[in-house]
TrEMBL record:
Keyword set, alphabetical order: ATP-binding, DNA damage, DNA repair, DNA-binding, Nucleotide-binding
HAMAP family xref list: MutS
Family indicated by similarity: Belongs to the DNA mismatch repair MutS family.
Family matches, as SMART domains: MUTSac, MUTSd
Limits of the DNA mismatch repair proteins mutS family domain: 692-708
InterPro entries found in the cross-reference section: DNA_mismatch_repair_MutS, DNA_mismatch_repair_MutS-lik_N, DNA_mismatch_repair_MutS/MSH, DNA_mismatch_repair_MutS_C, DNA_mismatch_repair_MutS_clamp, DNA_mismatch_repair_MutS_core, DNA_mismatch_repair_MutS_N, DNA_mismatch_repair_MutS_sf
Protein residues bound to ATP: G618, P619, N620, M621, A622, G623, K624, S625
Name this protein carries in UniProt: DNA mismatch repair protein MutS
Protein purpose: This protein is involved in the repair of mismatches in DNA. It is possible that it carries out the mismatch recognition step. This protein has a weak ATPase activity.
Amino acid sequence: MMTQYLAVKKEHQDCLVFFRMGDFYELFFEDAITASKELDIVLTSRGKTEKDNIPMCGVPHHASENYISRLVKKGFKIAICDQTESAENKSSKLVKREVTRIVTPGTLLEDNLLESKGYNFLMAICDEADSGSFGIAFIDISIGDFFTEAKNIEQLFSAIHKIQPKEILVPERILRNDQISKIIREWKVNPMPDSRFSLRSSMERMKSFFEVTTLKGIADFSESEVCAAGALIDYVLLTQKKELLSLSRPKKLCESEFLEIDPFTRKNLEIFQTMRGEKNGTLISTIDRTSTPMGARLLLMRLMHPLKNALDISERLESVRFFKQHDATRNNLISILKKIPDIERSLSRLLLDRGGPKDLGAVKSALCLLPSIKMIFASHKECWSIPNEISDAISNINSDLGEFSHKLSTAINDELPAFLRDGGVIARGYCEELDELYDTHFKSSELIQRLQEKYAQETKIPNLKIKRNNIIGYYIEVSPSLSSKIPFSFVLRQSLVSGMRYSTQELIEIEQKLNVAYSEAIQLETSIFNGFIEDLRSLTEKIRKIISSLAILDISSAFALLAEENCYTEPVINDSDDFEIIGGRHPVVEQAYKNSYESDFTKNDCDLSKKKLWLITGPNMAGKSTFLRQNALIVLMAHIGCFVPADRAKIGVVDHLFSRVGASDDISRGHSTFMVEMIETATIVNHATSKSFVILDEIGRGTATYDGLSLAWSCVEHFALSAKCRTLFATHYHELTELQEIENIACYTLSVREWDDKIVFFHEIIPGSADRSYGLHVARLAGIPTNIIHRAQQVLDRFENRL
Ligand code: ADP
């Protein structure tokens, strides 16, 4: 067996090998030492090599998922080596074992290893010889979604951050490029031989996998996209050890279709994570009202890829408007959607032969709910004109799966076991033969009961019991003090302190009958179950369409509910350079105000149609950052097709959303606060166009006053005169307000009033500029002792007089 183990280990040196032995997965040698340390489980030993014991540790196979998930989360790869033949029918002692799956962070399938509302992308990156361009391909095998993108090196960093892959495959040669190594080093990178990324084999792999003679029919991929996609498929096939893999055809994402958001902006706007790395308080957590995991993932995808085409955005908005107007329909729909399980992931597991009865149960309950969704819309069809996006979704849901779902609903029980081997998956009445086997099984149970009563009478031991365990099967148990009453025909099997265990010929015969019936029943259930999987394979395309339609219905109705609950409005999106927000609010801060009941969030207008750059001055705590961010978030929300927190909004499509807010060190990359600030500013200056939307908070604060002021000055001139982008620029440098002489610039401030030596913030944006920073007032509010504030005031007076 050790020879067998060593052969497997030799093939999977980069993995921890989980070697199946009976009811356990065992690990040996270095793997055992590592796993026992990482999992905090006992390290034992087995047999001997020439001199030493072989280190060994093990986990019960039924609980293995939990241990595997802990190791995978720590970055390990696991090779699962299973027994691929039954030990019972073997004459020799050694059963055949094979690696049936390699578990890696990017190829997870199990619900308990995955975030229900998130993606688990595996990515491959391939360079294109001497051209400086890259192909990236990414896939979530728990769903089947597959994408490619062509990028240059400047865009690579941003693309990886956007997708947040759990594992990245690269050709080894790429690691020799310092620039790329720097970009990918914070991710889990899996270097592979260059040959795996060869164009010829990748092209062949793609063509045979998707059964096409040319890839042109799928999309116009670049060579490096093909290489990345081919390597990705290869890797998935290798780790899953299955040719059954079913993936959607790769969708080529074109940058020109999407509003671009760089990683700094995404971080600053706290879209997916707050600055502190939390989920609560993010934009996504504030606007997510979806009812299904599929809808929640679509929201994530839309936030990753906001649209740039006014017509496409308007189509999405039309769907939201429809559900906002027809609230009864929406509420009925939502109440059904809430019952729909994560059929997307269940389907993928079933297609990969890794699904259990509960996954088929999920497909059944989802499909059975479709007619009621159909009904909601059928009854209103004539009265309304249903928007295209919704009517397409409904017609997909209407697609003819009636017969299959009827079969599924009569065949599959409502209450299901975790594993097929536990039985009870197929409903009574569906298969006569199966019912008969279970009848025999249950009749035998009755026989056992009767036998127990008979033996109790014969031996005059009233508490004699017939019990069963997995090791010795059925046995008769009596307490040791009564063993003298047991007849000679009873054969002693085990003697324990707690009881003496016997067997009889009669009991053995009943047990055999019972076992045969039970194992035949399980076999039959398994074959019926597998029949359904085969049906699913032929219906995969249709079911995937249904799933994406459910996600669209979910997100559109969820956006409508969100809009109603929070009085959001439908933005007007067009191709102009307009930006006109009346009564705008910050979605996240407003929500926090609602929850705390203290006061209302103050609405603010922002009209950049005439003057494209607003210079905003005002003391700390007046609300500058909130105002800047709320307008950027309104832009983003509008571009994903969501209503926005405002009374009215008119927005000309934006090509790139930029933000530089606050300052933080990035010590891990060796960047000081000021360096980070300048890198972010440089990105904006180099890329902003007249279609961009820019928010800048406090440029130049991380260096000496005059350096900072001059940098801020020249940046404002650049944005107003050259880039001509829509810009909100908050600053403490009052000197900058001189720039309002430039035609494109307007000065705004936030109203504050001094009262009784204190300042009161109204958070209201008004034309004009602040005459001072009120820094000392804020310091007082923060608890700096009076004597220090007093002294600071004297110093400040001296400086101001000197100026
Ligand atoms: P600044 O950037 O001027 O220092 P912030 O934007 O950080 O100010 O806001 C300071 C505080 O004021 C925050 O706690 C914020 O919640 C609150 N605030 C900001 N804008 C508003 C508003 N429009 N209505 C109500 N509260 C606001």
